[in-house]
Specification:
Helix content: 25-40%
Strand content: 15-25%
Protein name: Maltokinase
Organism: Streptomyces guryensis
CATH architecture of the largest domain: Alpha-Beta Complex
Shape: globular
Strand order of the largest sheet: 6-7-12-13-10-9-8
CATH superfamily of the largest domain: Aminoglycoside phosphotransferase (APH), C-terminal lobe
InterPro entries: Kinase-like_dom_sf, Mak_N_cap
Number of domains: 3
Number of strands: 18
Number of helices: 12
Keywords: ATP-binding, Carbohydrate metabolism, Glycogen biosynthesis, Glycogen metabolism, Kinase, Nucleotide-binding, Transferase
CATH class of the largest domain: Alpha Beta
Family: Belongs to the aminoglycoside phosphotransferase family.
Radius of gyration: 23 Å
Bound molecules: adenosine-5'-diphosphate, the ligand O=P(O)(O)O[C@H]1O[C@H](CO)[C@@H](O[C@H]2O[C@H](CO)[C@@H](O)[C@H](O)[C@H]2O)[C@H](O)[C@H]1O
């Protein structure tokens, strides 16, 4: 059984100043750091909470820090992104924690100690689960649990090492805790939507068991969500690549994924408000896509030659607005791709990660949108898989596309292919987003969305 934890919630003056030089070097190297390409020039402290006393053998601080960086070209002035850090403090790091090292502190309250990313360390990770189990309130931190859901003690933590935008810890193959790294005030869809779906008894999404929030200056920040761990599940991306490598068809799985997507959309439309998008909203939608294309073409020079041809997908949408077409908009997943789908050993599909596109403002991510947007995301993902494989297989992606849309239509009664203009606009918009994402985060992958851009810009796209 886990040792009882004393949680003090004290804060420590001078703490950030002593960590500043180490964090400036360490933070930009983290996969989840959102401000890549611009140096960090300093930090300001949003909140610091001592979870284990720093003068003990193992100290633990929960920090919310704002990273100051020069503004990206053309960006609106803003105060800098706020990050959630869990800082462990020890005399020296045991070799198993070497990958977690942040550095050795020279001065200030932690002088002479070693600080590290505490999520790698089982003991601090246990502290978080224990706080959720006991619904602790420490300083501005609120550890909250869904009524009626229990968390048992003694679950052994391990950090998920897969590439992700946040950081997750699995507890005894029973729960997974996702700690959001770049945090913003307000209702976070990564908690809001799974909770709404759980209340609708939608079986396609793991139901949140507990969550961590911060209350700061009258604003609420969602910091993390604990949900059941789907043991033995494989993500759709891995599965798709595996089937592609074997030359196998993915049609049955793609159809099941289409059905799962429709189940989630149907439940979200029941749970949360829907709106009709008329002329004005459709124009705004098309204008937004055109603006994103212009910004993307500024940021990624390889996109520029294709920009005029890509515009046509968005002007076609604006033309439909002029003809009086309307669509129903609702809450959607917002960043659906194969990596967000998990298949259980029993063959059922689950959707995860309802955070939306991490780079977009929260208000935009929470707006009702046409469900076709999620569908376009999945179709782009089949295309990604087909173009990452050797040999590449456009036919495989086309077969997945047909099966996925049919599966979606079976459950929802609406085949996304009956909306070709909207679908094409969203697929183009997503491919443009991906070009920017890959240029920033994984330049080696840039040819994958660029292959789609070339196709979409051709006189008669697929
Ligand atoms: N409920 C779950 N059960 C099993 N594995 C999960 C679960 N939720 C997430 N994962 C795994 O953790 C990884 C990261 O989760 P995700 O929510 O996508 O985080 P991020 O937003 O940081 O990318 C996923 O790729 C998935 O493999
Ligand atoms: O999963 P995240 O919320 O972090 O999403 C971001 O990263 C994804 C990559 O990890 C990125 O997805 C793109 O690459 C996938 C293959 O790795 C592919 O399946 C997707 O279709 C493609 O968009 C996603 O766009 C980004 O927001």
């Amino acid at each position: 059984m886990a040792e009882t934890v004393t949680l003090s919630g004290r804060t420590s003056p001078g703490l950030l100043a002593s960590l500043d030089p180490l964090l400036r070097e360490w933070l930009p190297r983290q996969r989840w750091f959102a401000g890549k390409g611009r140096p960090v020039t300093g930090f300001s402290l949003v909140a610091a909470t001592e979870l284990l006393p720093a003068d003990g053998r193992l100290g633990l601080f929960h920090l919310l820090v704002r990273a100051h960086q020069p503004l990206a070209l053309g960006a609106e002035p803003h105060p800098g992104d706020c990050y959630q850090l869990l800082i462990g403090v020890r005399e020296a790091l045991p070799p198993r924690l070497a990958p977690a090292l942040i550095g050795h502190v020279d001065e200030g309250p932690l002088a002479g100690r070693t600080v590290y990313d505490a999520l790698y360390d089982p003991r601090p990770a246990e502290v978080l689960l224990e706080a959720l189990r006991t619904q602790a309130r420490i300083g501005g931190l609120r550890f909250e649990r869904e009524p009626g859901r229990e968390i048992r003690t003694g679950l052994v933590p391990r950090l998920v090492t897969a590439e992700q935008s946040n950081s997750s810890v699995v507890y005894g193959d029973t729960f997974i805790l996702k700690l959001l790294r770049r945090i913003v005030p307000g209702v976070n869809p990564d908690l809001e939507l799974p909770l709404a779906l759980a209340h609708e008894d939608c079986p396609r999404v793991p139901a949140p068991t507990a969550w961590l929030r911060a209350e700061l200056s009258g604003e609420s920040y969602v910091l993390g969500v604990l949900q059941p761990f789907l043991q033995g599940a494989t993500d759709g991306w891995e599965l798709a690549l595996r089937e592609l490598a074997k030359g196998e068809d993915f049609g049955t799985e793609a159809r099941a994924l289409g059905r799962a997507t429709a189940e989630v959309h149907t439940a979200l439309a029941r749970a949360l408000p829907t709106v009709t998008m008329g002329h004005t909203q459709l124009r705004l939608l098309a204008d937004g896509m055109i603006e994103r294309l212009d910004v993307a073409a500024q940021a990624v020079p390889t996109l520029r030659p294709y920009a005029p041809a890509l515009h046509s997908a968005f002007t076609a949408l604006a033309d439909l607005a002029g003809e009086g077409r309307t669509w129903t908009a609702q809450r959607i997943h917002g960043d659906l791709h194969l990596g967000q789908c998990l298949r259980s050993p029993a063959g059922q599909w689950w959707l995860i990660d309802f955070e939306g596109e991490p780079s977009k403002p929260l208000a935009e991510r929470r707006m009702p949108q046409p469900p076709v947007r999620d569908i376009a995301g999945m179709l782009r993902s089949f295309d990604y898989a087909a173009h990452s494989a050797v040999p590449q297989s456009q036919g495989w992606a086309e077969a997945c596309r047909a099966a996925y849309c049919s599966g979606y239509a079976e459950v929802s009664g609406r085949d996304p292919r009956t909306d070709p203009v909207l679908l094409r606009a969203y697929e183009t918009d997503k491919a443009i987003y991906e070009v920017v994402y890959e240029a920033r985060h994984r330049p080696d992958w840039l040819p994958v969305p660029m292959a789609a851009i070339e196709r979409y810009a051709a006189p008669d796209p697929h």
